[in-house]
Design goal:
- With 303 residues, the protein is an alpha+beta fold.
- It has two domains: 161 residues, no CATH class; 100 residues.
- It contains 13 helices and six strands.
- It has a six-stranded mixed beta sheet with strand order 1-2-3-4-6-5.
- Helix 2 runs antiparallel to helix 7, helix 3 packs across helix 4 and helix 3 crosses helix 7.
- The protein starts with a helix and ends in a 32-residue tail after the last helix.
């Protein structure tokens, strides 16, 4: 950890490095890696606040993924966490951008790890939500590989597809009402990501307009490489786009705007060869008169 950052962290926590929990030190070191990532998001929030005459606290809430990065879950649908109120209150008192970046790093260092939202299930780098009231299952992707090789490299196609097959097998066995798969991410611009799915799914992609996709990684994830460093070319393009900020078209600031994609659930079952669960044989007297018990039961694809 750089001495200057250790000084900043100690000022916030009131503890020297040797007295800090190892988890805080590890988070602080990761915060150093993510410094440029925090910098990008703060610059975006500052530009939005200035252009729209909004309090910076509101812009940071709506235009960054810090709430989730601080391990506080999703901002919508729950009371605002006290830790977030503390973060934004102090943020409003800071005069310079560099001070705001340092404060963000310090808060990240003291925050708990991110966890899955209630009901979401993880399968390697993928996860899925339960179906909504219309039977739509939303899927997500997060790089959880730690081998230093990009998660979408050609050598990992089989691994990623095995994760997807396990996930959709779980959906098939758990949610009889699941009808459609939906996703939203910058990743749909990449052939290396789309090749993992049924073609009909990737072909459905379209840019997701609006302001609701700036609080997770569906837009911000594009800036990080698999070592959590900011990609220089995308950063420079982002800064150029920020000079032409249009409050009605915020997604255009991002070099790879988030896309939405959707396809019928059956397309995934077919693509990954997921067959319906086989019913156990019915013995005479167990709810069957025995008259038809000799008739074989067939799975999809066996006839």
């Amino acid at each position: 950890m750089k001495p200057e950052y250790q000084t900043r962290l100690s000022a916030v926590t009131g503890m020297e490095k040797e007295n800090q929990p190892s988890s805080t030190i590890e988070r602080a070191e990761r915060g150093e890696r993510l410094r440029d990532y925090f910098d990008l998001q703060l610059r975006f929030a500052e530009a939005v606040a200035e252009t729209a005459a909004l309090p910076l606290s509101e812009a940071v809430s709506q235009c960054t993924n810090f709430y989730r990065r601080f391990g506080l879950g999703r901002l919508q649908g729950a009371p605002i966490a006290p830790a977030w109120k503390k973060y934004t209150a102090q943020l409003m008192t800071l005069e310079t951008h560099e001070q705001r970046v340092a404060w963000t790093q310090a808060c990240f260092a003291q925050s708990p790890p991110e966890s899955l939202p209630p009901g979401q299930r993880q399968f390697g780098c993928f996860s899925c939500d339960p179906p909504d009231e219309d039977g739509r299952v939303r899927i997500h992707f997060t790089n959880r590989d730690t081998d230093g090789i990009g998660p979408l490299s050609r050598t990992k196609i089989d691994t990623r597809r095995q994760e997807l097959k396990a996930m959709f097998t779980y959906v098939q066995q758990t949610y009889a009402d699941a009808k459609e798969v939906r996703g939203g991410s910058w990743l749909y611009h990449l052939g290396a990501y789309r090749r993992l799915f049924p073609p009909v799914y990737g072909d459905s992609r379209e840019v997701q307009e609006g302001t609701s996709r700036f609080q997770g990684t569906s837009s911000w994830g594009q800036f990080l490489d698999h070592r959590e460093g900011v990609k220089p070319a995308l950063r420079e393009q982002f800064f150029e786009n920020l000079k032409k900020l249009d409050m009605h078209r915020l997604w255009e600031v991002f070099p790879l705007p988030a896309c939405r994609a959707h396809a019928p659930m059956q397309a995934f079952y077919d693509f990954f060869d997921i067959l319906p669960a086989v019913d156990p044989p019915v013995e005479p007297g167990d709810g069957d008169s025995g008259i038809n018990s000799h008739i074989p039961r067939f799975n999809r694809g066996t006839v």
